[in-house]
């Protein structure tokens, strides 16, 4: 079974306090669901048409585990804390 990666990029953050509240809840929720945070932060260098956006990469043992983490009550509570505080793009991709 291939690992899965949850990739989040932040287009904008309009409420840093909401992002901080989200981060406080989301990390423990994701780790409790089996996620391992591999990358979190701003790019240190950009190539081609890269964007200066906060990026997070989380590894899971499977797509199903990643989806379950996102849909879990604990992560949904974190999302509620973020509500309207950031514009993001989240994708789950399967490893090779």
TrEMBL record:
InterPro entries: Dimeric_a/b-barrel, DUF1330. This is Uncharacterized protein (DUF1330 family). It comes from Chelatococcus caeni. Residues 3-96 form the DUF1330 domain. It comes from the Bacteria.
